[in-house]
Amino acid sequence: MNFFEHQAQARRNSTRLLLLFAAAVIAIVAVVDVVVLLLVSGSPQAVLWSSVLTLAVIGLASLYRISSLRGGGEVVAVQMGGTEVPASSTDPALRRLRNVVEEIAIASGVPMPRLYVLEQEPGINAFAAGYSPADAAIAVTRGALERLNRDELQGVIAHEFSHILNGDMRLNIRLMGVLFGILMISVIGRRVLLHMGTGARGRSGRTLGPVVALLVAGVVAIAIGSIGVFFGRLIKAAVSRQREILADASAVQFTRQTQGLAGALKKIGGLPDGSHLGNRADAEEVSHMLFGEGLGFSRWFATHPPLLERIQRLQPSFRASQLQTLRGNWLATPPDGLAEDRALGLAAHYAPSVDALVPPALPGTPYRMRVDPEQVAAQVATPADDDFQQAVRLAGNLSPALRELARDRESAPALLLALLLDTDARVAVSQREAVQAQLGALQAQRMQELAVGPLRDLHAALRLPVAALAFPTLRSLPRPQLQAFVQCIDALTHADGRISLFEYCLSRLLQVQVQAALEPSKHLHFGRRKVIGVRQEFATLLAVVARAGNPGDEAGARRAYLAGLQRVLPQDHLPYAPPVNGVLALDAVWEPLDALDPLAKQLLVESVTATVSHNQRVNVAEAELLRTLCATLHCPLPALLQVS
């Protein structure tokens, strides 16, 4: 199942979730009505009011919880007790975590998520939360940091990235909001018992009657609420189990080795704390998004496949007796992940001196790759081992100074703006004036200094990785600054029509991601439009890409345009007509194209690839342009296209 099929499946799961939720609501309302009928001897009016009141409680509770989660992944991580990982931490375990996540983010083509640690949790667990990659947060327990070695941690993080890439996070956070409503009656019952139980003590017989009535009502509410608890756990189990199997498989495909992920699962099974979380209420609510079981439910309600089954999918020869042996060994000497890294010679991967190592050279400017449109579409959000190795290579070519600039709150906005500064002096002057008007003279000066300094000779393949590393820092800025930043990007883009397609797309990508970070829940959607409804938008995009890839060669641009059009609309005869306003014409195409259904987006990626590679070759700059276009339409492509 590729990215686009995952997205289509996630949309079907959303429909399934709503149907199961409706069934749960009907069951709860029916039981409440039966109780009311017994109490009031069959009064239709009382039954009607009880139905309305029950629906109101469920609906308002769900709306409240959905509203409280509007902030996306960061909100979930903080509510779970997460502490954000500092950008410049000297803690070896935290440096190792950040390095692993940075490499996987670069490899998968998504912005670096914000990182959190559940400091009080000794069990081995993790989760990814958010509405989209732009507001994603990954949280890991302190137990995972202490007990897992680098390969095992890499397997766990790759598993969580699978949820980020395949749209699982959106369904998970929607599930949290929706299920809160059907659990609300049980919550009300528990609160009544908690507050009225103590109030009953010391009261006289004359005033005890109302208290007893309320206590009985609380017990009845808990009994009725147990129906919601039953359905909530059943829904989470039905939605989550198969996705966990797919995420394990994706993690193995990504890291190209089973030992890391299998080792993490073995440590969960072999250590006393396992993957359990201490706070049962929190673990109950997020159990469907955890790496391992947060609570010990029976098979019916388990949100994950049995642990031994997950291990055996990775290592078929593994037996339960071996798990018992590991338990005995680790009971006496618990594993130490950092010590295991040192023994395996992996400590250099996260030691401060790693930045001083000489990285392998990147491809030269003339470097060109053979590509196939279907192969490229298959790579979208499906990173493999060679993509990961390429990401390590790219990360190694980023200087320590550039990394620090990307992580610093003061310099990160100027760094991103500097990536968009035009090489044409006249256009650059207009852009600096626009930045000064929106963000002030200091940021305009910083942008200029970075453009002629650290970014002057930046390799084309490093521009998107730099942007990906800087994005979490950008998201941490106050809301007014983020809004001003979005306006500034727009001003840079439209300062003059003379802006390259890559610069335009990168600016658009930054706008989309910042806007998604500002209002995460507004970007929770699965597109439904078909290709036939966006024919003109397709033609405009392909014409702009074809002309940008064939400057001064109208005949070559026309052939490139037709190659892309043939992929997506083989029966149509839309003439090659480049828009007079060039790349700015794309302002009107993004929203309709982003609203395509997932399988139509697959055709879009194939058609753009066919246009870019009409001569069967793509250079590094064109590959990065293709990545930027894909990311703008929420189809993340790995760091560099594979060589056929």
Notes on the protein architecture:
The chain is 64% helix and 3% strand. It contains 27 helices and six strands. It has helices spanning 3-40, 44-68, 73-79, 92-108, 142-147, 150-165, 168-199, 205-255, 259-270, 280-286, 307-314, 320-332, 337-344, 373-379, 385-396, 400-407, 412-418, 425-439, 441-452, 463-475, 479-493, 501-518, 535-549, 554-568, 590-594, 598-612, 620-632, and strands spanning 83-84, 114-118, 126-129, 137-141, 368-369, 618-619. The strands form two sheets. The chain has a four-stranded mixed β-sheet, with helices on both faces. Strands 5-6 form a two-stranded antiparallel sheet. Helix 16 (400-407) runs parallel beside helix 20 (463-475).
- Largest sheet: spatial strand order: 1-2-4-3
Tell me, briefly, the overall form: globular
- Helices, by number, come to 27
Main sheet makeup: 4 strands, mixed
- Residue windows where pLDDT falls under 50 for at least 5 positions: 351-358
The Rg value, from CA coordinates, equals 27 Å
Relative strand content: under 5%
Q: Which quaternary structure do these chains form?
A: single chain
Arithmetic mean pLDDT = 82
Roughly how much helix do the residues carry, as a percent range? 55-70%
Helix vs. strand class: mainly alpha
**How many β-strand runs?**
6
End-to-end gap: 21 Å
Throw out a few tags for this protein.
globular, 27 helices, 644 residues, 4-stranded mixed sheet, mainly alpha, 64% helix, 6 strands
Short description:
The protein is mainly alpha-helical and 644 residues long.
Helix/strand layout:
Elements: H1 3-40, H2 44-68, H3 73-79, E1 83-84, H4 92-108, E2 114-118, E3 126-129, E4 137-141, H5 142-147, H6 150-165, H7 168-199, H8 205-255, H9 259-270, H10 280-286, H11 307-314, H12 320-332, H13 337-344, E5 368-369, H14 373-379, H15 385-396, H16 400-407, H17 412-418, H18 425-439, H19 441-452, H20 463-475, H21 479-493, H22 501-518, H23 535-549, H24 554-568, H25 590-594, H26 598-612, E6 618-619, H27 620-632
Parallel strand pairs: 2-4
Antiparallel strand pairs: 1-2, 3-4, 5-6
